[in-house]
Write a structure and sequence with these properties.
Chain lengths: 252, 264
């Protein structure tokens, strides 16, 4: 049997990067994937490519009504909600000295408020579907600090503890809903593209990032998607409130 | 070590009560000039230091606080970002966007601004200070470590403070500012944050209930945390930066109850 047979999964940031890689894997494993993204053209195109088991909904994660509509559209299209991937996010370089309050709020709204709203509105739909699994994309920078990513670190630290709070709440309420965080290292996705092009000393941006990882390379979106698939599936039914690291040894 | 902070200037946000007031008292006893920054003088529990009305969520307030300190005291050495709110009960299903934003504005953005303006102040030379230096102490919570120790928005805000502190520490180290930054993670402390519980079940009963959930058998008194803040503020911790300091009576040390401090 396929690993996600008949499971309906909503994916924020589903049009690109880790979200898109996971959507493809969900469909391949027998599930239904609802790609939710601000980029309608890209999301529609990928959903069309994936066929009848995929669907696109527009989503701006910082707006509560947008989440409500996306969850409703998912249930209307496929009749249930079993999985949520909160992959939408923004990677921004700034330090404590150069980050403005407006920028701090923008990054935290997208990465942290957006993830909270996804959890909040997925829970009722999952309760009505017999349970589910929520996977929140944090980062290695939710585990370790970086001088050049102050607001991003804060937002991913928030996702890390928010995830545990959601997990414990759902366990206490006996909802049969699990919630875990995934902490990728630097993954070769559009989010880090600007860094690949900027040289660091005599190294290319890519080399500099590769060297951070003991495995000596960047991660691929599929490698993170494999971990997410495990967490979405019934292979991980005793895992909740936990941190899953996928970083080529970076934090080891 | 009674005068180890002599000549130093310290700011304690939320300094009027609780952990802030205890920290202010200990910093002052160690010789520091302490600025107690809090929303209103009315409810303050301390006579220590110079009181300044301050709202940590307002950038303008931070700008004028820093200008005022550099004009009056002439330097800044210690920043204790202690002001915070629980935001009231709220789980992932009941928390509103308004509650979320309100809690982040004070607990997360307030600490961000506190660090940003602290660095400006600590780099400023004068009043006997000849090189950039300082210590920033951010009060997070065990809710910044585990998921069952507070309401949803609070838990997220304290996780943000935990990681923000590390980023600030590493940045200041790279820039060779001589400024350290660490986070403190209290468990249950007998402060006004528990007033709703005291009102519901009575103070003694509430303290006994929460105390029994800490392996050490009691809640912390503000003084317990004040001692940790003093140590982090002083030169005794000069090799310590970007680190997490838990003072929680052992509550996060081992196998945990599903809800550490009562239902959220």
């Amino acid at each position: 049997m396929a690993r996600l047979e008949n499971k309906v999964v909503l994916l924020s940031g589903g049009a690109s990067g880790i979200g898109a890689a996971t959507a493809q894997m969900v469909v391949r494993e027998g599930g239904k994937a609802v790609l939710a993204d601000r980029d309608e053209a890209k999301g529609q195109a990928l959903a069309a490519e994936l066929g009848a088991s995929a669907h696109f909904v527009p989503l701006d994660v910082v707006h509560e009504e947008s989440w409500q509509a996306a969850v409703a559209a998912t249930v209307e299209k496929f009749g249930a909600l079993h999985g949520l991937l909160n992959a939408a996010g923004v990677g921004v370089r700034n330090s404590i000295e150069d980050c403005t309050l407006a920028e701090y709020r923008r990054v935290n709204d997208i990465n942290s408020l957006g993830t909270f709203l996804g959890c909040k509105h997925a829970i009722p739909a999952m309760k009505g579907s017999g349970g589910g699994s929520i996977v929140n994309i944090s980062s290695v920078l939710g585990l370790r600090g970086a001088s050049y990513a102050m607001a991003y670190c804060a937002s991913k630290g928030a996702v890390r503890t928010l995830t545990k709070n959601v997990a414990l709440h759902c366990a206490q309420q006996k909802y049969n809903i699990r919630c875990n965080s995934v902490h990728p290292g630097y993954i070769d996705t559009p989010m880090i593209a600007p860094r690949l092009d900027s040289n660091v000393g005599n190294m290319s941006g890519r080399q500099a990032l590769e060297e951070l990882h003991p495995l000596g390379r960047l991660g691929q979106a599929d490698e993170v998607a494999h971990m997410i698939l495990f967490l979405l599936s019934d292979e991980s039914t005793f895992s909740t409130g936990s941190e899953f690291v996928c970083d080529g040894g970076l934090t080891a | 070590m009674s005068n180890e902070l002599s000549g130093r200037v310290a700011v304690v946000t939320g300094g009027g009560s609780g952990i802030g007031a205890a920290s202010a008292a200990l910093l002052a006893a160690a010789g520091a000039a302490v600025i107690v920054a809090d929303l209103s003088e009315g409810s303050k529990e301390t006579q220590v230091g110079r009181f300044v009305t301050h709202d940590v969520a307002s950038e303008e307030a931070w700008q004028s606080l820093l200008a005022d300190i550099l004009e009056r005291e002439g330097r800044l050495d210690i920043m204790v970002n202690n002001a915070g709110i629980s935001g009231g009960p709220g789980n992932p299903e009941t928390t509103t966007v308004e509650n979320w934003q309100n809690v982040q504005a004070i607990n997360s953005e307030g600490v961000f601004l506190g660090c940003k303006y602290a660095i400006q102040g600590m780099k400023h030379l004068g009043a006997g200070k000849t090189q950039s230096s300082g210590s920033i102490v951010n009060i997070s919570s065990i809710a910044g470590l585990v998921g069952g120790a507070g309401p949803t928005a609070y838990t997220a805000s304290k996780g943000a403070v935990r990681l923000l502190s590390k980023s600030v520490a590493l940045y200041c180290a790279e820039q060779k500012y001589g400024i350290r930054c660490n986070s403190v993670h209290p468990g249950g402390v007998d402060t006004a944050i528990f007033n709703p519980l005291w009102q519901a079940v009575g103070r003694d009963q509430g303290k006994a209930f929460l105390g029994a959930r800490h392996p050490i058998g009691r809640m912390a008194e503000p003084q317990d945390l004040g001692e940790l803040v003093l140590w982090l503020a002083s030169d005794r911790s000069s090799f310590v930066t970007g680190a997490e300091f838990t003072s929680d009576g052992g509550i996060t040390a081992g196998l945990q109850r599903r809800s550490l401090l009562g239902p959220s």
